[in-house]
Specification:
- The structure is a single chain.
- The protein is of the alpha+beta class and 135 residues long.
- The protein is built from 3 helices and 3 strands; from the N terminus they run αβααββ.
- It has one domain: Helicase, Ruva Protein, domain 3, CATH 1.10.8.60.
- It has a 3-stranded mixed sheet with strand order 1-2-3.
Length: 135
């Protein structure tokens, strides 16, 4: 199940919006459970998906499409490439892209296979723990 820890930290006008992101990710978790897979989503990834899926005119309606395009499609591609297989745990996190031609760095989602021995975060996966956001 997707953790709903620290959802109050979202800086989005509609208080129910983070809940919609979590609900949609739980739907994805149920789908990958058919393959005995698990997904773990970091706080940073939740925030990125929330900001990508929010539209002032449409509210949270675009969330489902954003999760389909950025999570489900990328997981499917990873499965087809053989990066993820049955009984894998997949960490969904974010990373900043490098500076290019004077452009500002941008966040993007990254998918990492977690070690099979442990489903809990290791020292390397400390990003699973909520951390204060930089201003």
């Amino acid at each position: 199940m997707i953790s709903m820890v620290l959802l109050h930290r979202f800086n989005i006008p509609n208080n129910n919006f983070p809940f919609v992101v979590v609900l949609q990710l739980e739907r994805v978790q149920k789908r990958v459970a058919d393959r005995k897979m698990k997904i773990q989503v970091t706080d940073a990834a939740l925030q990125l998906l929330g900001s990508l899926g929010y539209d002032p005119n449409y509210g949270a309606r675009p969330v489902k499409r954003v999760i389909q395009q950025n999570v489900e499609n990328e997981l499917a591609k990873g499965i087809l490439r053989g990066e993820f297989k049955e009984e894998d745990a997949v960490l969904i996190d974010t990373e900043l892209t490098a500076f290019t031609n004077g452009q500002l760095p941008q966040q993007k989602l990254v998918f990492k296979k977690l070690a099979a021995e442990s489903e809990s975060p290791t020292a390397e996966d400390s990003s699973l723990e909520p951390s204060p956001q930089a201003p």
